[in-house]
Write a structure and sequence with these properties.
binds zinc ion, 130 residues, globular
């Protein structure tokens, strides 16, 4: 699928100010660890497959595809990673994909708190729809 063209994480210049809660700090740590390790060669195969499966769900799932039709490519990447995280059986892959989604939200200038909230809301929405 052509939408995989933007899958590669990019190093980003942004504030590294930590969150105000342990949860937000953890999210920031995950996101920064992901960016540091963002060599596509190193991206775990299982996580990559789960992310691609996330794209398939976004394109084909009857209840999800209609809701995400027309979102930007960048947003689709975040949603594919989040769906991939939900589908991973390994905790490490789940964390990697969640961190990828979080890193992309932080790259857009969102605070860790806002990113965390948004990912949790999306997670709950997908859980209800899947
Ligand atoms: Zn992708």
């Amino acid at each position: 699928m052509s939408s995989t063209a933007t899958c590669t994480a990019r190093p980003a210049a942004r504030s590294t100010a930590g969150g105000s809660t342990a949860e937000e700090d953890l999210l920031t740590v995950y996101a920064e660890a992901f960016e540091r390790d963002a060599d596509p060669e190193d991206f775990p195969l299982e996580a990559m497959i789960a992310h691609e499966y996330g794209h398939q769900i976004l394109a084909r799932h009857p209840r999800i595809a209609t809701r995400v039709a027309g979102v930007s490519e960048a947003s689709e990447e975040i949603l594919a990673s989040l769906l991939g995280a939900m589908l991973c059986s390994e905790d490490a892959d789940r964390v990697t994909l969640f961190a990828k989604a979080a890193a992309e939200l932080l790259d857009r200038g969102q605070s860790a708190a806002a990113a965390n909230r948004q990912l949790q809301e999306l997670w709950e929405l997908f859980e209800a729809l899947l």
